[in-house]
Amino acid sequence: MGRVDLVERADGAYDQRAALKRLGLVAPSRVKRFLRERQILASLRHPGIARLLDGGVEGGAPYLVMEYVEGEPITTYADAHGLRLRDRLTLFLQVCDAVTYAHRRLVVHRDLKPSNVLVSERAEEDGSAVAHVTLLDFGVARLLDADLDEPVTAEGFGAPLTPGYASPEQIDGGEITTATDVWSLGVLLYELVTGRLPFPTHSRDAWVDAIRRAAPTLPSEVAKTASGTEPPPTDARRLRGDLDAICLAALQSEPENRYVGAADLAADLRRYLDGLPVDARRPSAWYRVRRFAGRHKAAVAAALAAVVVGAAGTAFYTVRLAAERDLAQAARTEAVETATFLEDVLSAASPFSTQRRDTLRVADVLAGAAREVGTMGSAPARQAHLYTVIGRTFDELGRVAEADSLLRLALGRAAFGSERWNEAATALGEVLVKGDSSQVAESVDLYRQVLTDREARLPETDPMLANAHSSLAFGLWMADDYPRAESLAARAVALHRGASPPDSVGFANALKVYGDALETTQKNDAAEAIFVEMLAVRRVVYGPEHPSVPIGLNSFAGFLRNLERYD
Predict the structure, then answer these.
(1) In the predicted model, what is the mean pLDDT of the chain?
(2) Among residues of the chain, what percentage have pLDDT more than 90?
(3) What is d(CA 84, CA 222) in angstroms, rounded to the nearest whole number?
C-alpha cells in the first residue's frame, strides 16, 4: 500500500522515534482509505494498539506518524523463546483484549496476522521483563456504523486481504463483522499452538478451495502427526478436546456459527486455562463433571473418601475397602470433634453431593466460617486443619483466590514438618499445579518438601508416603519433567500395593498418574496395563456408575486413540 520509514524528530524539542507511513500511489480510492485509517487510529487509545502520533498531507499525498514498535511477530517470538502452551495462550489473550477494545468502538481490523501482531519485552518496576503485544495497521479496517443504510461489505475478491488469514466472507464479498476478526484470530491461535496454518497456502486457488469446502484438521492431530524435523510447539495431548473445539469454533465457515467477537473467544480460552467447561463444546452434565474432576483430581478423590462404599469385585480389592472404611471412620470421628458445624456446609458445597445447595450461598457461608476460624487463636493446629478443609472446598468450587489465601494461612498456623503442615502444603499444591509455570514450580517444591518429611518419619507401608510420591509425580508431569514423573509414579504404585491399611482412592489416583506418565514417555504396553488396572480399581472403589469411572474411561480412550486403535 505504500512505504514505511523509521524516523526521528528533527526539531530538537525532544528525542522521539516513530514510524512514518506514506502512500506509494495517490489514486483517489487509496487516499480515501488512508485518510480513513488515520481517523480510525486517532480514536483508538489502548496499550495493545500502536498509537497515531500525527498525520497530514504533503505534496498531495497523505501520511501518518505512528508509534514505533520494536518487536517480533507473535509466532516468531513464541518459537524463539520456547514458550509453553499456557504462556502462548496468555500472550494470545493480550491480542484478544486489544481487538475487543477496537470491537467495542465499532472497529474491525480485517488483517490480523503475525506481522501485524508484534511482541516486545518491557521492563517492570522490579526489573523483570514482561512480554507485551501491540497490534499494528488498521489500514483495511472499517467502522461498523449502525446508522449505515447498507451493510458494510468487503470490496469483492480484489479487496485488501492476506491469503491464509482472511475469512471466507472477505473472499466472497460478504458482510464484514466482528466475526471476521474472530476467523483471523482463530487462524493465529491455530498457528501458535501447532506451528502451522489451518489451510494450505501454496497457491491462492488451493487456499480458497480449502476454506470453502472443508474444516481444518484438528490441532491435536496436526501436532501428533508432525514430522521430526518440524516439531510442533505444543504436545498433542494438551490440545485434544477443549482447544480443538475452541479453534474450530473460531474457524467456522459461516460467521454466525463462530464466536460473536474477540471477547467471547477470549472468555472461552480463560475458561480453558482455569479448568472450567468451555462454550465451544456441548455443555453436557458429564462434560462439566469431567472438567471439574480434571481440575481437582486429588481433591475430588479426598472428598469422596468419606462416602466410599463397598462394591462387588475381586476379593483382593474388597479386603482393601474393608480396611479403608475403618480409616475413613476414624477420620470422620476426628472431623466431628474439630469441625462439627462445618460438615453439612462442606458436603452441600461439593458438586458431587445429592443435596447440593446454591454454591454462591455456600461460598458465603464458607467465608463466614473462615472468619470464625480466625478467632481460634489459642488452637493453631486446629486452625490449620480447618483452613485446609475450607480451602480445599473453595478449590472444588473453582474459587482459586480464596483457596490459595486460606491454604497459605493453614501453612502459617501449622508447625513445619507436622502432618497438618503436610496436608495444607499438599492442598495448596493442588491449587498451584493448575496455574502458570511459576505456580507449577512452587507446587513441585511443596510436594517435594512433603515427600522429604514423610520419607524421614513414615514406614513404607504408610499410604500417606505413597500419596506423597504420587503428588510429586503429578507435579513433575505438569512441569513436563516426564522421566522423573514416571519414576516417582511407579514408586507410588509400588508403595500402594504394599500399604497397610490400604488407601484405595489414593491407589486409583496413583495408577492414573502412572498411566499418564508412561503414555507421555511412549511406554505404551506398560501404560495400557496400568490404565486397565486403574479402571478395575475405580469400579470397585466407587461403583460402576460413579463419575470417576467414565473419567478413567475417557483417559484410556484418549490413549487408545493416540495409538490409532479407533475401534
Answers:
(1) 80
(2) 36
(3) 17
Indicate the SS3 state at residue 502: coil
Which residues lie closer than 8 Å to 432 by C-beta, 6 or more apart? Answer: 404, 439, 440, 442, 443, 446
Res. 10 pLDDT band, cuts 50 70 90:
confident
CATH superfamily of domain region 2-67: Phosphorylase Kinase; domain 1 (3.30.200.20)
**pLDDT tens-digit readout, 217-254:** 888 888 766 544 455 676 777 888 889 899 999 999 88
CATH number for the domain whose boundaries are 290-562: 1.25.40.10
Architecture of domain 72-283: Orthogonal Bundle (1.10)
Contacts of 1 (CB under 8 A, 6+ apart): 23, 24, 30, 34, 139, 160
Give the separation between CA 381 and CA 67, rounded to whole angstroms. Answer: 57
- What are the b/e assignments for 195-233, b being 16+ CB within 10 Å? bbbbbeeeeeeebbeebeeeebbbbbbbbbebeeeeebb
Helix axes 419-432, 380-396, angle to 10 degrees: 20
Are the C-beta atoms of residues 394 and 402 closer than 8 Å to each other? yes
CA angle 119, 68, 115 (to 5 degrees): 45
Give pLDDT tens digits for 388-405.
Answer: 999 998 888 888 888 899
Residue ranges of the alpha helices (H) in 112-241? 168-172, 178-194, 204-213, 219-224, 236-239
**What is d(CA 525, CA 86) in angstroms, rounded to the nearest whole number?**
30
